[in-house]
C-alpha cells in the first residue's frame, strides 16, 4: 500500500495497517448518502481524502435525496440486487435495518471477517450505543449524530428588557416567554423536530421510558408508553403556550430554523447540528444552552439521545468490496477526520479521541456552546430509558406523533388525549412490524 | 348498420389493436395484478420474506378510523379541485373566446402552467403562502387575518385545492376553448337576434353544446384529483395538519414509500382502483345520458 504525503498520514496508517496483509484486488465501492448542500461537500472531501491516501480502494459517493428517499433507494436497489456496499440510514430506520438480517452485514462482523483493526471501545458510548446490540456488538457505524439544544437570540431578550440567567428549567423558559410576550414579541419560542425533541429526548432526559422492552432494545414486542405523567405534563405546558401565543408551531421538520435565523423567533429548540446554519445566517448575538428540563422530576437531567444517521454495510458483496468498506469505515473513525467533521458541522464526534483533540485545539473556547451537546449526552451514564430508541415503522410512528401534537397545538385535543391516541395508533404499527421482523 | 366495415381476415383486427393491448397489459393489467397479489401479503421491506394474510390488510384499513376519514377528505378534495379548475377555466375560456386582439398571447400564457410539474407548483404555492415569509400571509396580516395553514386545517385544504386546481386550469382551458370555437356562430347570432340575453344564450345554447367537452373534462379532472395530486400534497402539507389533507393517494405513497408497508399500500391502491372504476362507470352511465353530442 502506498501513501501520498499528508498531514494525517499517521492517523490513516494506523487505521489501515491491518488489511495490508490481504492480497485484495482493487475494489470500487458505492456509498449512498442523504447529505445535502454544505454537508454533501464535506462528505465529498472525506471521500476524496480516502481515495487519495491509498491506492487500493475507491469509494464512489452518491447523494440519493433526503433520508427517507435514501433508505428507499437502498431497499429498492437491494430488491433488484443492485445495492450499494455502504448505505447511510437515519436513526429512525435502525430497527428496520437491524431486523433485516438477510440484507445487512453488521459492522462488527465485517471487521472480524476482513481482519481489520477494530476496537469498539474507542467510540462514545452515548453515540455508538444507539447502533449497538445489547450484547455490545456494533451493527452500523455512527456517521452524523446530533442532540437537541436550546438556541437563544440574546439581542431579542435584551430588547425585551430581559436580564435573566441562561434558562436551565422549563419554568425558567416560561418566565422568559412571558416576559417576551409582554414586551410584544410575536414568536417567543418555536421548535424543530417536535417528536424527537419534546417526546423522544424529553423522555430520555427525564429518565422515563418512551417504549417498553428498554425502548425496543430488548425485543420487537416493545410497546409505546410515552403517554406517561411526565410527557403529558410537558405537552400540556407546550399546548398552553401555543394557546397563549408563546409557542409558535412552524412545521414537522426544521421549518422553524428560518424563523430563528431571521430573528422572528427568540428561542428555538433544535439539533446541535443546526449550529452551522445559525452561525452562517443569524445577524444577531445568539447563544446555545442545554435543553431545559423539569427540576422537580426525579432523575432529570439524565442524558439526551442522538438523532442523525449511521452507515450500514449491505449483504451480497465480494471480499474485496468488504475490505474496502472496512478500510473506509476505519478511516472515518480516525481522530482528525472526526474532529474536522465535528467542528465543521456541529455533529457530535463519534470517538472520545476526536472530542479531546477538538478541545486541545481550543475550538470549544473559540466557539462557546459547541461542547454543550457532548456534555449533555455524556453527563451521566445512559440508563435503559436513555440509550436510544429502536422501534420498527418508526418513521410512520413519528408521523402519527406529529399529527397528534398538531391537534394539541391547534387546541383540538388535550395532551392526554393526543398522547393516548398516538401510543395506541403507534402500537398497531409496532405489531405489524413485529410480524415481519427477523428475516 | 349499412355502412359497417368488416375485416375479412380474423387476425388483422387483432394485429391492429395489438400495440394498444400490449400497452394496456404492461402498464395496467400487470401492475394491477401485482397490486392485487401484494394486497393479500405482509412482506418485510427488503422482500426477504412474505406472508400470505388474505383479507387482513383490508380489515386493518377499514378498522382504522383515520383511513375511513380519508374517504371524506378525498371526496371534499376531489370535488373542490374539479369544481374550481373547471369553473375557472370555463370562465377564462369564455373570456378568451371573446378577445379579438392579441388572443394568441392570452391563450399561450394561459396554457403555460400545464407544463409545470405538480411538485414544483406545490413548492411555488407554498412559497407564496408560507406563514412567516410568504407574500399572501403578509397581505392578510395587514388586513388583520392571521394565515397559518401549518395548524389550520381549513386553510391547509384550501391551499392544496388551489395549488392542485391551478395546474389543471390550463388543460381544461384548452379543451373548453376548442369546444367554444366549435359552436357554430350562426346559432348564437340567431339567438341574439331573437332577443336572448348573453347569460340566456350561454345557459341554453353554449352550455348544452359544450356538454361533451364538459363531460370529458369531468372524467379527466376527477382522475387527476384522485391520482396525480400527491406531489402537491407532499410538498405543501404532507397530509397535515393532523390528517386533514391526507387524501387516499397520498396515503398510498406515504405508507408504501416512506413507511415501507407495501402490503397495506397495495391494499389501498386496490381500493383506490375500485373507487375510480366505479366513479367512471357512474359517470358514463348516468351523466353521459345528459350529454348532447
Please characterize this protein's 3D structure.
The complex is a heterodimer of chains A (439) and B (293). Chain A is an alpha/beta fold and 439 residues long. Chain A has two domains: 9-145 and 306-360, Periplasmic binding protein-like II (D-Maltodextrin-Binding Protein, domain 2); 148-304 and 391-436, D-Maltodextrin-Binding Protein, domain 2 (3-Layer(aba) Sandwich). Chain A has helices at residues 9-16, 37-53, 67-79, 94-99, 107-114, 125-128, 154-159, 170-182, 194-205, 212-215, 229-244, 256-261, 275-281, 319-332, 335-345, 352-360, 363-366, 372-378, 394-409, 415-436, and strands at 27-33, 57-63, 86-90, 104-105, 141-146, 148-153, 189-191, 267-271, 286-289, 307-314. In chain A, strands 1, 2, 3, 4, 5 and 10 form a six-stranded mixed beta sheet that branches. Chain A has a four-stranded mixed beta sheet with strand order 7-8-6-9. In chain A, helix 2 (37-53) links the parallel strand 1 and strand 2 (57-63). In chain A, helix 15 crosses helix 16. The longest helix of chain A is centred in the C-terminal third of the chain and has 22 residues, at 415-436. Chain A is globular and about 65 Å long. With 293 residues, chain B is mainly α. Chain B has helices spanning 11-38, 56-62, 65-98, 103-111, 118-129, 135-142, 153-181, 185-193, 198-209, 211-227, 230-236, 248-258, 262-287, and strands at 41-43, 50-52. Chain B has a two-stranded antiparallel sheet with strand order 1-2. The longest helix of chain B is centred in the N-terminal third of the chain and has 34 residues, at 65-98. The relative contact order of chain B is 0.13. The mean pLDDT of chain B is 89. The chains are: A alpha/beta (439), B mainly alpha (293).
